Amino acid sequence: MTADSILSSVMDVTLSKVISVANEQHNLAVEFKQELRRFHDTLKMIQGVLQDAEQKGMIGRPDLKPWLEGLWSIAEEADDVMDEIAYENLVDLMQIKPINPAHINLMQKKRRKNG
After folding, report:
1. Which residue, 3, 21, 50, 76, is the most exposed by fewest CB within 10 angstroms?
2. Angle between helix 3-55 and 101-114 (nearest 10)
3. How many CB atoms lie within 10 A of CB 38?
4. CA separation (Å) from 100 to 85, 106, 113?
5. Global pTM?
6. Alpha-carbon gap, residue 58 to 52, rounded angstroms
7. What DSSP assignment string belongs to 35-90?
């Protein structure tokens, strides 16, 4: 086996692993985005119910007050979580450096040449 063929094999294995990890990360991101959307929709529903209760004067009812206050507290915490996620996402986006397509093309050409 020549040094070029060994290097080519190592590069193939490495590239396959990188692609596999990238696919896993992509799938996790897609699933997270879907869950986050459901979480956001649920939060908006809860906020709508609370606004409706406030407009109808139900906030002061002794039988509903503890429950509605607890729901308000949960909604505020959930809103804080959404804000934190949005902030972290913005920070991450600012730190990402794009992959140079020329590097990918070069690696693919080398694989085809040696493969």
Report:
1. 3
2. 140
3. 10
4. 28, 10, 21
5. 0.57
6. 9
7. HHHHHHHHHHHHHHHHHHHHHTT-TT-TTTHHHHHHHHHHHHHHHHHHHHHHHHHH
Read off the tokens for 104. Answer: 């990918």
Within 10 angstroms of residue 9's Cβ, the number of other Cβ atoms is 13
How far is Cα 97 from Cα 101, in angstroms, rounded to an integer? 12
Q: What is d(CA 83, CA 91) in angstroms, rounded to the nearest whole number?
A: 12
Answer yes or no: are the C-beta atoms of 33 and 85 closer than 8 Å: no
d(CA 11, CA 87): 37
Amino acid at 87: Y
Whether the Cβ atoms of residue 52 and residue 71 lie closer than 8 Å to each other: no
pLDDT, tens only, 6-27: 778 888 888 888 888 888 888 8
Both tokens of 28, joined, read 């996790």
pLDDT digits (tens, 9 = 90+) for 49-79: 999 999 998 888 999 999 999 999 999 999 8
